[in-house]
Amino acid sequence: ESIITFDHVVKEYRRRSRGGGAIRAVDDVSLEINRGDVFGVIGYSGAGKSTLVRMINALERPTSGSVTVLGTRVDRLGESKLRPIRMKIGMIFQQFNLFSTKTVSQNIAYPLQLDHWRKDYQTRRVDELLEFVGLSDHADGYPSQLSGGQKQRVGIARALATNPQILLADEATSALDPETTSEVLDLLARVNEQLGITIVLITHQMNVVQRIADRVAVMSEGKVVETGDVYDVFAAP
Ligand code: ADP
Ligand code: ADP
To answer: Where does the secretion signal sit in this chain (predicted)?
Structure first.
């Protein structure tokens, strides 16, 4: 069952230089991502990976083509109608994007606050998430007191707060050393297996997709140049 469908999606940006034409960041991509998959999007910097994935929660809008998420076309949807869909899509980032002036608990509670959850539900949900990511002892600490791996675990807990069905991970391990990368990938595997959440993982690191992804799309110059099961795509010739 397809949970995310790209149909002939093109995204062009205007060049910043005077008289410049358009940059085609995503060039006629058609792709289906199935519910329950860990789906890897791999390619060099500038290949169009972030642009493609940011169209899933409509942070970017396609120039043409359609993007369907959880049965709804999101590409032309207004901001207010996007809200309930965005609540079902969590996102984590390379630089973690935590609030430095909020505690770990407050960071995780933030999406629940935005969604006006009752205070006692917020507390219960945050405790549950802290336990899931193994940071109960750091509830009242601040991001600056945490290691990179711990910060990303807070990012994951925050992304999971509203019980999303999809988690978007944009170079989520690229700022981490190999050992910490392994820990974060193990946690993402638990998110997929225990919580049944579909994960779309952008990376330029081949070992990351090989370790965790079921299926993969390889991007180059805006196009998906290859797609399939991770074992087939990376099989030795
Ligand atoms: P990747 O995630 O694979 O590194 P991106 O999607 O970030 O690739 O970028 C694809 C191309 O689009 C690059 O040439 C990049 O410079 C360009 N690009 C990305 N975002 C913008 C933007 N907001 N404005 C103009 N060009 C952009
Ligand atoms: P990454 O390559 O890790 O995706 P970038 O540094 O390319 O990150 O992009 C960071 C931000 O800048 C993104 O929001 C992206 O859309 C924007 N961006 C990237 N390239 C351009 C560009 N050529 N012009 C304007 N904005 C850009």
So the answer is: none
Give which of 62, 30, 82, 51 is closest to 202, Cα–Cα. Answer: 51
Longest dimension (CA), the chain: 56
pLDDT digits (tens, 9 = 90+) for 149-164: 999 999 999 999 999 9
Q: CA end-to-end span of the chain, whole Å?
A: 30
Helix (H) or strand (E) holding 188: helix 178-195
How far apart, in whole angstroms, are the C-alpha atoms of residue 143 and residue 3?
Answer: 33
Q: Any residues with Cβ below 6 Å from ligand 1, and which? A: 13, 23, 25, 43, 45-51
Model pTM score: 0.90
Give the nearest ligand 1 atom to 52 CA: 6
Closest ligand to residue 13's CA: 1
Instruction: Encode pLDDT of 62-110 as tens digits.
Output: 999 999 999 999 999 999 999 999 999 999 999 999 999 999 999 999 9
What ligand 2 atom has the least distance to the C-alpha of 94?
3
Give the Å distance between the CA of 198 and the centre of ligand 2.
25
- Nearest ligand to the C-alpha of residue 51? 1
Measured in Å, residue 23 CA sits from the centre of ligand 1 at 8
Q: How far, in Å, is the centroid of ligand 1 from the Cα of 128?
A: 37
Rounded CA gap, 97 and 212, in Å?
Answer: 23
CA of residue 159 to ligand 1 center, whole Å:
24
Can you state the angle between helices 148-160 and 104-114, rounded to 10 degrees? 20
Which pLDDT band, with edges at 50, 70 and 90, does 232 fall under?
confident
